[in-house]
Amino acid sequence: MLGKESVLHLLQDAVDECRAAGSLSGSDTPQIVLEVPKHEGQGDFATTLALSLAKIEKKPPREIASILISALEKKTPWIEKIEIAGPGYINFFLTHDFWRQSLITIHTQQSDFGKSAAPTPQKILIEFVSANPTGPLHVASGRAAALGDALARLLQAVGHEVDREYYLNDIGAQMQLLGHSTYLRYRELLGEKVDLPEGSYQGEYIIEIAEALKQRDGNQYLEGPEASHIDFFTQYSFETIVAWIQKDLQAFGIHFNTWFSEKEIHDKNEVTAALDFLKSKEMLYEKDGAQWVSTMPFGDDKDRVAVRSDGRKTYFASDIAYHRNKFERGYDRLIDIWGADHHGYVNRIKAATQAMGYESERLTILIHQLVNLLRDGKPVKMSKRAGTFVTLREVMDEVGVDATRFFFLMRRSDTSLDFDLALAKKATNENPVFYVQYAHARLCSILSVAKTQNWDIEATLQNIDLKILETLSLPEEIAIIRELSHYPAMIQSAAEAMEPHRITFYLQNLAGMLHSYYFSCRVVTDDAELTKARLILITAIRIVLRNGLRILGISAPEKM
RNA sequence: GCGCCCGUAGCUCAAUUGGAUAGAGCAACGGCCUUCUAAGCCGUAGGUUACAGGUUCAAUUCCUGUCGGGCGCACCA
After folding, report:
1. For the purposes of burial, counting CB atoms within 10 Å of the CB of A176, is it exposed (0-12), middle (13-18) or buried (19 or more)?
2. How far: A37 CA to B22 C1' (Å)?
C-alpha cells in the first residue's frame, strides 16, 4: 500500500461527504493535487485542494480546509494528525508504523519495487543514436545513447513494451563519398600521389580501412573500372564502420533490437508506396515539376519537397516512408531522439506523419541539446570530415562507462551540456556516480561484516514484521524509509515526463542520506533487535539503489 | 530577418508539471578516521531566479516584449 493513493481517496471522499451534508455547496471538483512538501514540519503529504476550491465555493481557503478536516477526522488509524497551514494547505502526518510497513513491501518486491503496470500498456519503439555510418561514434552520440537506453528502461519499468532501433543511413551521397575517400587513400597507400577533394572524409580511420584492404587484397583495385571499385570500397567501409559502432555501443552497454536499413526501404519500394499513399489522401501535389507534401496544414512553415524536379527523391521522402514503416510494424507509439541540430526537422516530420493519418500523440520527438566538447575550458572543434573529433570510445576508455553514462544522464536533455575532457578525466574522484556507487558498496560492506559476526541475514529478511521494525524510530531512519517509499512515484513521474535525469538526482539524495546515517549510527551492534531492524533497513536501501542504477544502465559495485 | 531550446549561487546543474522559507555537487573556509569503506560526514559562506510588464489566492514555472547564449532555417543528407 502506498500513502499517496490512500490519502487521495480520503480527500475525494471528504469532498463528496461535505457536499452531501451541505457544508460545501459547489459541484465541480478540481484535480486533487497531493505533493510531498519540501520542508520539514509540513507533513508527509500536503494538498492545495482548499486553495483551489476557494473560488468554486466562494469561501476563504482556510475555512474550507477546516470543513474538510472535520470530515477527515473519522480517525483513520494510519494518520497521526492533519493540520492547516499557511494560506490553506492541508498537511497530513502519517504514523511511523505506516512508513515502516513499506520496508516489507520493498523486501517482498525486490527488483520489482518501483515497477508498475501501466493502465494502458503501449508498444513503443525508441529510435536513437542513428549516427551516419561514415565514421566512429563521437562523444555527442553518447548522450543520445545514454538517454535513449535509460528512457527505454524507464518506460519498461512502468509497464510498456519497448524496442530500441538504430536507423542506418546506408544509402546516398555521403556513402558514395565515404567509398571514394577510402579508395583515394588506398591508391595513396600504394604509392600514388592523390588530391583529396574538398569535402571528402579525412580522418585517420579512413586510412586504417584502406590499409586493411591493401593488406588483404594487394593492389588489385588499381586497374579496371573505378566506379565498381568505389562501390566495393563503399560497401566495405560501411560494413567496417558499422561493426565499430556496434562494438562501441555494446561496450557502452546498449543493445538495439533492430538495425534498420534505409536502403532496404528503397529496395522494397516503400518510399514510392508512401508517396502514393499520401497522394491518395490528397496530401501530395505537383508544382514546378516537383512533388510536394502538404505539411503546412499540420503546423509546418511551408510545404516540403519529396521528389525533386529531376525525379530524385529527397531524404525527407525516405524519412516519411521510414516512419510509416515503423507505425505499420504495429507500434502504438514512436519516440525519436534527435540532436538539437535537427530540431528544424521536427515540425515537418510530425506534420508528414499526421498527413498520413497518424495521430500526432503517437509520435514524440525528443530533442537533446548538443554536447560542447571542451578541453581545459576551451572548445574542441569537431568535424567528422576533417577527422578532428573525439570518439565515444576514447571517452569511455578515459572516464569509464559508468561515469560517462551518469554524466550524460545528470542533465535535463534540453539544456546544452559541457563535457570537459580534462575535467572528466580527473572527475574519477569528483563524479557523483561514485558517490552513489560508494553508498552501495558501503552497504555491501556492512552486510559482509554482519555476516562475519554470524548474523543470519537471510533469516532476518525472511521474517519481517512490524514489531521488529519498531526499533527504527530515529528521525533519520523514518526519513530514509519515507524516501524509499517515494521511489515508485518518482519513477512514474520521470517516465511520464520522459526525464531520466530525475533518477540521478533521487539516487544522489538517497546516497547522501545513507552516508549521513552511516556516520551517525552503527548498524551492527550488541543490540539484537536493533541490529536486525537496521539490517532490514539497509538492505532495503540497497534494493532501491540497485533498481535505480539498473534503469540508468550503471553498475552497482559491491566493493570500491 | 524567421523559428526552436536555454538564461537560477563564482562554476556545472536541480526545483514534485502553478504552491509554503529556490536546493545539490564542485571550487573557498573551518572541523571529524584506535569502532561496519574518509571515493565519506558535520559546519560556514554564497541569490533582486537576465530585465520589464501581464495573468491569480499563489510565478523560477504560464503569456507579451527586450537583452544575451546555442542551434536551425535547401528541389542537401
Report:
1. middle
2. 14
A336: Cβ contacts below 8 Å, ≥ 6 apart: A127, A128, A349, A363, A364, A365, A366
C-alpha cell at A158: 512502468
**Each residue of A476-516: pLDDT tens digit?**
999 999 999 999 999 999 999 999 999 999 999 999 999 99
Q: Which residues contact A41 (CB under 8 A, 6 or more apart)?
A: none
CB A83 within 8 A of CB A93: yes
Q: Any atom of strand B under 7 A from CB of A385? A: no
**A493 CA – B54 C1', rounded, Å:** 31
Q: Which helix (H) or strand (E) holds A370?
A: none
Show me where the domains of chain A are located. 3-94, 128-267+369-425, 429-552
Question: pLDDT, tens digit, for every residue of A1-24?
Answer: 467 788 888 888 888 888 888 888
The answer to whether A479 CB sits below 7 Å from nucleic acid chain B is no
State the DSSP code for A381. Answer: P
Is A517:A480 a contact under the CB 8 Å cutoff? yes
Query: For the stretch A449-475, what's the b/e string if a residue is b when 16 or more beta carbons lie within 10 angstroms of its beta carbon?
Result: ebeeeebeeeebeeebeeebbebbeee
Same fold, A3-94 and A128-267+369-425: no
Helices A3-21 and A49-57: angle between axes, nearest 10 degrees: 20
Which residue has the closest alpha carbon to B15 C1'? Answer: A38
- Window A255-294, strand B contacts by Cβ < 7 Å: 287-290
How many Å does it take to go from CA A492 to C1' B24?
A: 22
A508 touches strand B (CB under 7 A): yes
Does the domain at A3-94 match CATH 3.90.1170.20? Answer given as no
pTM: 0.94
Q: Does domain A429-552 have CATH number 3.90.180.10?
A: no
How far apart are the C-alpha atoms of A235 and A240, rounded to whole Å?
9
Nearest nt by C1' to A91 Cα: B20
Q: Which fold has domain A128-267+369-425?
A: Rossmann fold (3.40.50)
Q: How far is the CA of A385 from the C1' of B50 (A)?
A: 38
* Percentage of chain A modeled with pLDDT above 70: 96
Residues A264, A178: Cα–Cα separation, whole Å: 19
> Is nucleic acid strand B under 7 Å from A342's C-beta?
yes
- The answer to whether strand B lies under 7 Å from the CB of residue A526 is no
